[in-house]
Amino acid sequence: MCLGLPMTIVETDGITALCEYGDEQRRVSVMLLSGASVGAKVLVHIDTAVRLLEEDEASRISEALDGLEAGLNGEDCDRFFADLVAREPQLPDHLR
């Protein structure tokens, strides 16, 4: 399984960008995006920025990843998924 990371662009030359997520930095392709500037949040899959993210969406993805890590470490992860407790999850129309 491949997970996307919500990364922040630190520097870019328009073709690649140095991005960071936590303590990790990596150079990724930004050729699929227009408007990928320093400070932008991007979703990175296999060293390619696939789309721009809003700040709140990047935070939700980051929290979900933290929750997965907590669960894998045997820790309580409910607090990371509080938004799922507050509402009944719904299947997308194409899966109903």
TrEMBL record:
A biological process from GO: protein maturation
InterPro entries: Hydrogenase_HupF/HypC (IPR001109)
Pfam families: HupF_HypC
One GO molecular-function entry: carbon dioxide binding
Family indicated by similarity: Belongs to the HupF/HypC family.
NCBIfam families recorded: hypC_hupF (TIGR00074)
Record's protein name: Hydrogenase isoenzymes formation protein HypC
Source organism of the structure: Bradyrhizobium ivorense
